[in-house]
């Protein structure tokens, strides 16, 4: 009789533990001339993981749960004597569904895309130049890409649609009494107003709206 071979059980697949999302930041130093004066500044760019505490008490052991990785670029002026009094402006683009690249490289940042004299995009190769009209001489700048735009994405297992309104775009982070402003373009102009009303009201000192759409009396209040 042929020998009976022992039964072999299929190998159980081991669940691989997925790496925890982490902040990924890069910092560099530069200089630009604005209003005839050299402004030395530091750039911080990268993704920051936004976390949210679970509301389920049975899952308190989970602690803060990663929700999304926000991409942002921050410009801070160097050699500032009192950083607590240095103004800070958060900038959002419109769309909806747009990253902050247009206000960043088209208007406010210390570097801008070179355009034709008529304001049209030139033929490639495209170039960057110092932006003599940047606001960096007066305020530090933060450009934020809402989730699903630019490099901002929800972490694995989270639904992008949860972030497709202003409520999840920004959380309060007061900077020791520093004057803070909010700048929104077109659609984000209305979002900027709502963010101030619902989130930043104790900390915001001003709101800038870049739009051709007039605000109604109710919107402006």
Write up what this structure looks like.
- By secondary structure, the protein is mainly β.
- It has a domain at 79-220: Rossmann fold.
- 12% of the residues lie in helices and 33% in strands.
- The protein has three helices and ten strands, in the order E-E-E-E-H-E-E-E-E-E-H-E-H.
- The chain has helices at residues 101-108, 187-200, 217-220; strands at 24-34, 37-53, 64-77, 88-92, 111-113, 128-130, 140-145, 153-154, 180-185, 204-210.
- Strands 1, 2, 3, 4, 7, 8, 9 and 10 form an eight-stranded mixed β-sheet that branches.
- Strand 1 (24-34) and strand 2 (37-53) form a beta hairpin.
- The longest helix is centred in the last third of the chain and has 14 residues, at 187-200.
- It is elongated.
- The chain starts with 23 loop residues before the first strand and ends with a helix.
Helix share bin: 10-25%
Question: If you compute it from the alpha carbons, what radius of gyration comes out, rounded to the nearest whole angstrom?
Answer: 23 Å
> Which class of secondary structure composition applies to the elements?
mainly beta
* Beta-strand content bin: 25-35%
> Biggest β-sheet, characterized?
8 strands, mixed
Q: Summarize the helix and strand pattern as letters.
A: EEEEHEEEEEHEH
* CATH superfamily placement of the domain at 79-220: Alpha/Beta hydrolase fold, catalytic domain
Compute the number of helices. 3
Number of extended strands: 10
Overall mean confidence score, pLDDT: 76
Give the C-level CATH assignment of the domain at 79-220: Alpha Beta
| CATH architecture designation of the domain at 79-220 | 3-Layer(aba) Sandwich
Q: Give the distance, in angstroms, between the N- and C-terminal Cα atoms.
A: 93 Å
């Amino acid at each position: 009789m042929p020998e009976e071979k022992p039964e072999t059980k299929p190998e159980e697949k081991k669940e691989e533990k997925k790496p925890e999302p982490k902040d990924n930041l890069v910092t560099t130093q530069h200089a630009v001339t604005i209003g005839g004066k050299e402004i030395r500044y530091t750039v911080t760019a990268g993704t920051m993981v936004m976390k949210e505490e679970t509301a389920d008490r049975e899952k308190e052991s989970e602690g803060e749960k990663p929700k999304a990785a926000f991409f942002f670029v921050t410009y801070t002026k160097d050699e500032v004597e009192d950083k607590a009094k240095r103004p800070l402006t958060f900038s959002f683009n419109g769309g909806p569904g747009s990253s902050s690249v247009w206000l960043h490289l088209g208007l406010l940042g210390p570097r801008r895309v070179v355009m034709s004299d008529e304001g049209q995009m030139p033929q490639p190769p495209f170039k960057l130049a110092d932006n003599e009209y940047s606001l960096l001489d007066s305020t530090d700048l933060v450009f934020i890409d809402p989730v699903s735009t630019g490099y901002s994405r929800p972490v694995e297992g989270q639904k992008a649609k949860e972030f497709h309104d202003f409520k999840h775009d920004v959380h309060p982070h007061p900077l020791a009494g520093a004057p803070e402003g909010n700048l929104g373009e077109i659609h984000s102009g209305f979002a900027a107003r709502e963010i101030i009303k619902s989130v930043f009201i104790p900390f915001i000192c001003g709101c800038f709206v870049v739009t051709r759409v007039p605000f109604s009396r109710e919107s402006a209040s």
